[in-house]
Amino acid sequence: MVFDGPTARRVYLIAASAISLIVVLFGAANLIAILIEVFAYPPPQPYPVPQYYPGLPGSAAQVAVGLVVWGYHWAKLQAER
Known about the structure:
Elements: H1 8-40, H2 55-79
Organism: Methanoculleus frigidifontis
Pfam family, one: DUF5671
Transmembrane segments: 12-36, 56-75
């Protein structure tokens, strides 16, 4: 009897691709929220404008690393076909 189901490697590649894509989506959502905060709703003039946004580096890192991890695993998954 031949079993043609998914292998453990294929399941790993799919799971890693899905998780890294979710990380990219959350990072992109945070980046969009920061951009809206900076450009669409600037603070009133009497208040000092913040020069540093604490969520910006983490969100940018999530997008960058998530895209690299997703791209690697997705390429390996496509190469197995």
